[in-house]
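WARN retry 2 of 3 for item q-0093 after timeout on previous attempt; input resubmitted unchanged.
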Amino acid sequence: MDPSPLLLFAVLASLLLLLPPFPSLRADSSSSSGDVVDREALLSLKASMKSDPSGTLVSWNESSDLCQWSRVVCNGRSRVSTLNLQGLGLTGSVGPYLGNLSYLRFLYLQDNQLSGELPHQLGGLLHLEVLNASSNLIGGAIPANLSRCSNLTTLDLSQNAISGSIPSDLGLLSKLQVLKLGKNQLTGTIPSAIGNLSSLTTLNLGTNSLGGPIPGDLVRLHSLKVLQIAINDLTGQVPPTLYNLSSLVLLDFASNDLFGEIPGDVGYRLPNLVDFHFCFNRFTGVIPPSLHNVTSIQSLRFSHNFLHGPIPPGLGNLRNLVMYNIGFNQIVSSGADGLEFITSLTNSTRLEHLAIDGNLLEGVIPESVGNLSGRLYKFYLGANKIFGSIPASIGQLSSLALLNMSHNSISGGIPPEVGQLRQLKMLGLADNRLSGEIPAAIGNLTMLTVLQLCGNQLEGSIPSTLGQLQQLLSVDASSNKLEGSIPRELFTLSTLTSLLNLSKNSLSGPLPEEISDLVNVVAIDLSSNMLSGNITPSIGNCRSLQILSIFGVMLLELITGKSPTDECFAGDLSLERWIRAAFPDELTRVLDAELTTAPICHGGRRISPEKQDECLVSVTSVGLSCAKESPDARLNIREALSQLKGIRDGLLKHELAITI
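OK item q-0093 returned
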C-alpha cells in the first residue's frame, strides 16, 4: 500500500533538516571566489616587486594556502584582513592590485623602498582601518578618493616624496585619529576641512612646503594631542583659540614665517604640554612666565625669534626638562648675578640640551654650573655679554659633547679641569679675553673634533699634548700671543681635514717637515708669525690642501729679502701692503737687488732681461694673491702651484741662444 502524502512529507522534511541551509552554500561559494581574487592580488603585488632581500615573499605561491603566507592574516572567511610588509627592504611599486583585497583592514607598507604612486584603487578598500606607507620613496599625489575609506583611523604617508596639495576630502574621514603626512613635498594650504576630523589625536604635516595661514578650524579638534606643522612656509599669526586645545601634548610650529606674541597664560591653557617648539619664526614679546609652571614640560624651543625681556622665574619647577633653547633672541640680564637662572636649572636632572647663546645676557657663570644635570650633552653660551672667569666646576659636566662660550668677554685662564670633559667633541672659546697658557690637560680630550681658541690673549707655547687629539678635524688658535715653535706632534694629526690656523701669533722657528703628513687638510694658515726657513717640497703630499696662507708670505719674503716682522713694518704697513703699493710699475724698488741685477741662466743659456722682469712680476702677482688679508680672497694653493709651474715653463721656452 502506498504511503500517505502526510507520511511522505514528514520524511522529506526530516531529510531537509540534515542538509546545510542554502545561504551557507552561497556563502562558501562566495568565499572560494574571494580567495582566488585575494590570491591573484597578492601574486600580482609580488610580481611588481623588484627585490625582496629578506625572501619573505617566497612563501607566496600557487601551491600553498593563502592564509599561511608570510605576513598575511585572514579573517574567518579566509579573506585577507591584514597585510604587514613593514621593514622588508622591498623595492618596486604598490600597483593597483591591492585595491582588490576588499576585506583588508590593516595595510602596513612602511620602512621599505617602494616607489611609484599610490594607486587610486586603494579608495575601494571600504573596510580599511590602517594605511601606513611611511618611510618609502612614493611620489605623486594623495589619491582624493581615500576619503571613501570611511573606516580609516590611521593614515600615515610620512617620509616619502608625495607632492601636490592635501585633498580637502580627507576631512570626510570622521573616524580618523592619526593623520601623518610630514616629510613630503606637499604644497598649497592646510585645508580647513581638517577641522572636521573630530576624532583626530595626531596631526603631522611638518617638513613640507605648505603655505598660507594656520586655519582657525583646527580649534575644533578637541581630542588633538599632537600638532606638528613645523618646517613649512606658513604665514600670519597663530589663531588665538588654538591655545585652547587643552589636550595638546606636543605643539610644534617651528621654522615657518609666523609672527605675533605667545599668550602669557599659555601654560595654564595648555596644562598637558610636554614639547612646545616655535623656534625660527618672527615671534615677539616675552617668554610666557606661565610655561615655567607646566611641570610636565620636557622640551622648550624658542630660538631665532625676536623675544625680549628677562628669563622669567620658575625654571626650577621644570624637573622633567630635557631641552631648553632660547638662543638668538634679545633676552636680557644684567649685573654679575645675571646668569643665576642657571642655578635654578640644577633641579632639572634630565637636562641634556641648554642653549642661551646669541642674546644680551650679562653676568658671571656661577660656580653652580657644575651641578647641572649629569646628562647635559650640549651647552651653548656664546655671543652674549658674559664676563668673569670660567669656573673650575665646569669639569664636572662629564657628559658634555659640545661646549661653546665664544664671542663673550670671559677673562682669566682656561681651567685645566676642562680636560676632565672626556666626551667633549667641540670646544669653542673664541673671541674672549682669555689669558695664560693653553693647559696641557686639553690633550686629554681624545674625542675632540673642533678646537676654537682664536681671538684671545693666550700666551706661552702650544702644548705638544695636542698631538693626542687623534679625532681632531679643525683647530684655530689664531690671533693670540702664542710663541715658541710649532710642536711637531700637531702635524701628525692625519685626521685634520678642515683647518689648521695658527696665524697672528709670535710663533718662531722653522716649519716642521712633518707638515706634509697633513694629507687631508684643506686650509693651513700660519701667516703673521716669525717662522723661518723654507717650505718643504713634500708639501705636495697634502693632496686636499687648497689654502696655504704662509705660502704667499714666504714667496714675498723670498723675492724681497724682507720679513713681515722687520721693524719697518709697523702700524697698518705690512709686507704685503708695501709690495702692493709698488706693484707692478715700481716693483724693482721693493725686490731683492740680486734678483733684478744678477742674470738668470739655465742649461748654459741666459734668460733675456725682459723675460726675467716679466717672470718676477708674475711670481710677485702669485705671492700677493696668496697673501691677501681675507682668506676667502686668497688664491687656492693648487692654482698657485699651477701658475708658478706655468711661469717656469713659459720662461724656459723663451731662452735666448746666448752661450756663456
